[in-house]
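Try this one yourself first.
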């Protein structure tokens, strides 16, 4: 268990040091926002269908 935690910590540290281009970060944020919006819309549609 200790080894797994150590590996996880070092992996996170390594991932955080990787420099991401601003454009890539922006694209990722937009993708995440779109994904969330689609999920919310699907949830709303499900609720409306259940209520009818």
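Now uncover the answer:
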């Amino acid at each position: 268990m200790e080894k797994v935690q150590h590996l996880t910590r070092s992996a996170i540290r390594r991932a955080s040091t990787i420099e991401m281009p601003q454009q890539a970060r922006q694209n990722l944020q937009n993708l995440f926002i779109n994904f969330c919006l689609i999920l919310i819309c699907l949830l709303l549609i499900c609720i409306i269908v259940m209520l009818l």
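Discussion: The radius of gyration is 19 Å. The chain is about 90% helix and 0% strand.
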